[in-house]
Amino acid sequence: QEASHRFALPTSGSGGVFKQENFVLSTSSTDQVKGVMTLQGDALCQADVNLKMPRNNQLLHFAFREDKQWKLQQIQDARNHVNQAIYLLMNRDVNYQFKTGLEVLKLMDAVMLQLSRARNRLTTPATLTLPEIASSGLTKMFTPVLPPDILVNFYINVNKLCLTVYQLHVLQPSTTKNFKPAGGSVLHNAGATFEFGSQRYEVSHVHKVECVVPWLNDALVFFTVSLQLCQQLKDKISVFSSYWNYRPY
């Protein structure tokens, strides 16, 4: 229940409308990228990003269009899994009596599966290829329009909201460089190459900025505690079952 409450953050008297939270994404090692993100439940409803181009120190600024917001599927999925775990526990009559220990063990296994899936959605970001990032709807979210040599990606990694900015340069058709498209990854490194449309690109610079989302941290703690409680109940039932099955000679 506590974990599920962290995914629903209504403001008082708002009838369940998610409150907006602002997060500053930056890194202490460089000021190449800075971003201010507004998170509302499982959606990024505002994003302002400043990017300093290393070649000429030109400062680029781009932000979400007012009519756009970006759903963070990881948060949405984690919330759905924890709600399913609660449903498994609550969808019985209040006077229901469990008949056997095995019945409880099966229920705990089902609940633990949903809790593990909820945790894994936050701790295991999706691996994407660079063409998948380039063709993502996220690229159409910004005003002014992102230049063709910039890619961006947002994702959750454990308890952090992460923004990755890739700067690209075009590979000329006459280049003698061995071209090997990069596969899927959470974070691509400089030097990765890919083909998009009819053009080949190489990643020249990678900038990753992040910040901790406190309520995601809370939820992960509650997932761990919940899984431990489920396992403790399973262990107790197993011990009692071994006594029950014991037949002295």
UniProtKB/TrEMBL annotation:
Pfam families: Rogdi_lz (PF10259)
Principal location class: cytoplasm
Record's GO cellular component terms: RAVE complex; synaptic vesicle
Localization: Cytoplasmic vesicle, Secretory vesicle, Synaptic vesicle
Family statement: Belongs to the rogdi family.
Name of this chain's protein: Protein rogdi homolog
